[in-house]
Amino acid sequence: MDLKTPLKQLVGIGPSLVYKLGLLNLHTAEDLLYHFPFRYDDFSNIKPATDAQIGEVVTLQGEIWSIKNIYTRSRKVLTQALFNDGTSPIVLTWFNQSWLSKQILPGVKLQISGKLVKYKSKLSIMMPRWEKLPDTPMELQPLHTGRLVPVYPETEGLTSKWFRTKIDQLLPLAKKIPDPLPDSIRENMLTLPDAIGKIHFPQNIEEVKLARERLGFDELFYVSLATQKMRAQWQKKPLIHPLKIIKNNINS
Predict the structure, then answer these.
(1) CB 78 within 8 A of CB 95
(2) What is the DSSP letter of 172?
(3) Among residues 140, 181, 150, which one has the least CA distance to residue 32?
């Protein structure tokens, strides 16, 4: 696989997804790497539930104790799980995601992120982001929780979670993107592969700023080059002399 590999050749991308990706003008692996986040959710605040304040956005690590689907009179489905991080039970609630009750089973260990609230005197998180914890903490490399989480331009059927997962798989290809800027111009800016990596999965807000600085410079740089090229082409065009009119040759 290389940068020009069509997305339709990637595992898990069928005709339906190819069509939806096309709506975002995404056709190759390189296109997907250049599909940048437009904002970030800060879920880097990892702490026990007992240390968190009501209304605070936190990331918790714990275990699912129970999970069930609840069907309302308006035919909506609530999926509710009882989660415990070792310090306090917390009710997790998702709307219209009944499939979660088959994917997240009791005993599964999760890392969850969201705003801690109190609902009916119980600690709760509505629509938490989640991902399964690995067997050993050293294997944890979160994409959707516990960090600055990128949020992408989406379309129906293509969520930011899908983009994060797929872009993470393709990110090693960023190293193959040539950096057109010589050191004399780039100076202290990030290399292009580094900027692409950090714009997708930054460790902190400073890395976001550095990545945007480099990518923004490239955009202006290419606009400037295009303008100079157009100006040069105009200068090469032969001059068109004004039409000379001799009055004596004009019939009255």
Answers:
(1) yes
(2) G
(3) 150
